[in-house]
Amino acid sequence: MSLHTETSRSKLIIYNAIIEDAGIYRCQATDASGHTEEASVVLEIYQRLTFRDVQSPQEFRHGETAEVVCDVISSPVPVVVWYYQDKEITEEHHSRYQVLANNNLQIHQVTKADEGVYRCEASVEARGEIDFVDIAVVVNVPPVLSVFQPSFNATADYQESVTFTCITSGSPDPMVTWHRKGQQLEPSEKYIFNKLEGGRSMLTIRNIRQVDGGSYSCKATNKAGSQERELFLKVFVQPHITQLKNVTAVEGSAAMISCVAEGEPLPDISWRRASDAQTFMDGDKSRDGRFEVRGRHGKSVLTISGVRLTDLGRFDCEAQSRIGGHQKSMFLDIEYIPKFLTNHTIFYSWEGNPVNISCDVMSNPPATMLWRRERFTISEGTPNMQIHGSEGKSVLEVTPMSDRDFGRYNCTARNNIGVRYQEFILAQADVPSNPYSVRLSAVSQRLATVTFMKPDSHGGVPISYYLVQYKELGSQDWRDVRSHSVQTTVVLTGLEPNTTYEVRVAAVNGKGQGEFSHTETFQTLPIREPSPPAVHGQRGMGKAYRLGLVKQDDGGMPIVEYIVKYKTDKEEQWMTKLVPGANDYAMLQPLQWNTRYEVEITARNVKGLSEPTFYQFFMPQKPDITESLFSGLGLGAVVGLGLGALLLLLVLVDVSCFFLRHCGLLMCITRTLCSKKTATSGKGKEMEEGKAAYLYTYNSRPTTLSTTEATVEGRKWQRVSQAGYD
């Protein structure tokens, strides 16, 4: 407070007035004679709207009754209204919401959905005063902890790892800790902690040992509470096969395959044959009695009696217990006496012709192979013979030089299991027997088709081709025609019309030519008039029409000419056009527009005329001038005219731009040429002005101009600048 006293008045000033300053103030005055008078003043102080110590955010536990505190004072007492999501909270529409007498907002059984920003708005209507405060409401949800797999099995001493996973939810996000035997676990090489999205927390236990078995707990904690779940790790010793070896057996003998396994609990052992996936358990015996399994105390023996080649392959031994399994494979190799793979034992050749006699063998272990003849071993130095060998195969190349080289040859294959022999016969090849059933078909004036059946014997050597001979009856000169490869159809060409021929066929192989077949006789057709030609039409250029001519049977003699007659359908007189027989078309012109024509075409050879072929076509109406013009031009000419017109249009536009707008390609060329001349070149005033403007723009030294010129140049500079030039 501050007191200011003057001669006739006194002033009491209260700074920063508060509610407690309200009341009755008395002013007392005393004169010199001691007379006293007083007056009183009533001071009323109104409290403005004030929010006192309102906390934000305000936190509550999920499910409890929350009371959102809004402490507001004023005088007179304010009216308080609550808002949520820009809507007024009323008990009529919000059954769980209630505004208490102290202006606080009460929310029954608050949930996470109630979380958000609430507005507490206070107003004093008498003064028109209003104010608000936003309060963030946070709902803390106690941790919810779930475990999808509460127990795990693990195998000890195999450097395996197990990962426990806890999935937590809550608000705020819970903190997860792991415990064992009442002690909180800390990160180490043994225990690895990971936290992933979605509230997943993982504990990985590395290098599992038997002592790691037991219970573990996952504990989630936040402001709203905590929750704990137990997980269990059971450690087993997984089955492990310790002994299984490959076995080699001899075909027909017995094979014993042993498999030893360990584990806790002791595993059961079974066998599986990979070739057909057949399984054998302890005590099993196959239907044929060859496979039998016996086992005890972690050891199983598979016995195979009378081993066959089909038993060759992989066998799987599987040790299985209720906590896992282990599988290993072995290979059963079977040794057997050499076996010959081919039954082709007869080969044909002739003197001077080399032949390869192949001896193919399958054996295990690989066999050594020898060739013998008449008790003598054939070696590399044997005359007329060579040996080419590879694994499982030996080829004897024999070049017979006399009858003594034909006969029996022996191939001997030997390994440590046994020895086998195979005999081959080298026989003398013969020429083929004669073809038969020779037939003639499609006989014309100059062509004939010969067909026949293959010979019964090819002589031991494949047939190379067939030789067809033919001659005129009474002649001694046979003419030869070879077949294509071993086809049994041959076409004879260049025959004479109305002539009798003889034909015969022989087969030829590497040995030589066989006997000819029975001789057949046939006669070609006599010369006759040609067949009517086939015709197809196509409109030509302008008043022309093109007739395509397709030659049919020429009757045995070349077509000399085509006689083409044509007329309109309204005329009686025919017009005739002769076309050489070598031509394949006839051009009819000039013709009349919008007219139907009738055509008669006849082919002629030296024998006479063919029957006529009749044809009709229609000439369209006369095209207009434009169509006529462009119909006579090719595609290149039309495109050239179009490009020329486009170029002319561009030149006209550029010239217009030069005179009207002072721009364009011509303007650029003009400026370039002008820039190369000096200021005293003697050009006209307009060119001088343009040059001066150019120099004013680009010269580094100032240019002195007259007043008129400067004004003109100034205008030109503005125009250039507006046109967008530098």
UniProtKB/TrEMBL annotation:
Membrane topology: Single-pass type I membrane protein
UniProt keyword terms in alphabetical order: Cell adhesion, Cell membrane, Disulfide bond, Glycoprotein, Immunoglobulin domain, Membrane, Phosphoprotein, Repeat, Signal, Transmembrane, Transmembrane helix
Membrane-spanning ranges: 629-652
Pfam families reported for this sequence: fn3, I-set, Ig_3
InterPro entries tied to this protein: FN3_dom (IPR003961), FN3_sf (IPR036116), Ig-like_dom (IPR007110), Ig-like_dom_sf (IPR036179), Ig-like_fold (IPR013783), Ig_I-set (IPR013098), Ig_sub (IPR003599), Ig_sub2 (IPR003598)
Compartment(s): Cell membrane
A cellular-component GO term for this protein: plasma membrane
CDD domains listed in its UniProt record: FN3, Ig
Domain called Fibronectin type-III: residue spans: 434-527, 529-624
Limits of the Ig-like domain: 47-131, 143-232, 239-333, 338-427
GO biological process, one term: cell adhesion
PROSITE patterns referenced in this protein's UniProt entry, alphabetically: FN3, IG_LIKE
Domain of life: Eukaryota
Function according to Swiss-Prot or TrEMBL: May play important roles in selective fasciculation and zone-to-zone projection of the primary olfactory axons.
This protein's name: Neural cell adhesion molecule 2
Organism, as annotated: Kryptolebias marmoratus
Organismal lineage: Eukaryota, Metazoa, Chordata, Craniata, Vertebrata
